[in-house]
Amino acid sequence: MMLGTVQLGVLAACIVLFVPMAMAGWHLSRNKMLFFSGALFISLAVGVHLSPYFLSITDFISSSSSSSSPSSFDSGNDRDFCLPLLHEIYFHIEQVRSINGTLYYLKSWGWPLSGAVSGCGFQKLGRSHASDFLNGSWVVVAGDSQARLVALALLNLILDSERMDAVRGDLFKRHSNYQIVVSDIGMKLDFIWAPFVSNLTDLMVEIKHYPSYPDVLVMGSGLWHMLHVHDASDYGVSMKHLKGSVMSLLPMSPELGDDGVVSGSASFRSPPFFWLGMPMLVDSMLNTEEKRERMNGAAFFAYEAKLRQSKILRESGGPLLLLDIHSLSRDCGRRCTEDGMHYDAVVYNAAIQIMLNALLIESHQNL
Ligand SMILES: *[C@@H]1O[C@H](CO)[C@@H](O)[C@H](O)[C@H]1NC(C)=O
Ligand SMILES: *[C@@H]1O[C@H](CO)[C@@H](O)[C@H](O)[C@H]1NC(C)=O
Ligand SMILES: *[C@@H]1O[C@H](CO)[C@@H](O)[C@H](O)[C@H]1NC(C)=O
Fold this sequence. Notes:
8 strands; globular; transmembrane helix; Pmr5/Cas1p GDSL/SGNH-like acyl-esterase family protein
């Protein structure tokens, strides 16, 4: 038992020391490494203290000494177990009466404090945490108006309200790209207006020629295609092209099979790239006749099926991690939208926190 504790301590020290060093290869700044070390140290400390409740120490030692059987501290486990739980959040909507007598809704969200999710230690990052985390990084958000709302949510987390007011005006100039350099944390964010999947494919081709890739890439489109082209098979074809162009960015792409399933996944390092899913469409609330006709549940499911068939998502062996705006918007519900397709900030704020926590989990992966 004594020996077990010592071994655990040494293991924890090694992880805290070496993981951030390994991450240097991932173009992370010193601050981010410090942040990761801190986060890792805390989660390991919590893990070590809680582990007796979940497994007996002897089980852990025997499994960690035989490297073939996974232990509960195995990064792969953390990833496989916690990543899929990230979207298990709840929304809380409360009607309140203000002093002047008007009624309004207070909307909030969170991860449940009990059940499997609570074991993952997800955390809402505050401004300073998020700034440390993103210090020195290049974030690209590309897509349609959903992507714009995600970019806005991310900036809103990092900037104070004064700067946010200025950003809001610029970012909402319709249908244009936007770039901001947050100089105090050296973060650069590019919003790329890419209403069609083919625009995203073009962006991937462009990025391939850059000397370095974005540290975080979030992209998604579909609503424009649904409204203006309204042809799910055509969407499916362009998703397949996009997948090809994303795969060609990956460092290990020669090891990927035709169907995108990773062979030798031990050496595969997935990039922090995300796919932004489409929101729940509430037909009756859409603001034009054309939208009501074309953007209904049936169209959504046809497009969704094409997305799945393209196997671009991590869950089917592809490169992109899904930020599931559909499940988030559905959970938040009709009271969270005014036009049946763009949702309140609370939905996109949750998506941003899911993304940041996914990045934290992914960083453990380099063990
Ligand atoms: C009443 O208060 C709410 C928030 O406190 C504010 O948004 C709203 O504009 C006010 N309405 C009137 C009529 O003053
Ligand atoms: C960001 O990193 C730079 C240099 O690495 C550092 O000087 C600066 O203080 C950091 N800013 C924040 C907000 O952490
Ligand atoms: C996006 O792609 C469409 C169709 O391929 C094209 O007409 C349009 O100019 C592109 N838009 C941008 C912003 O690149």
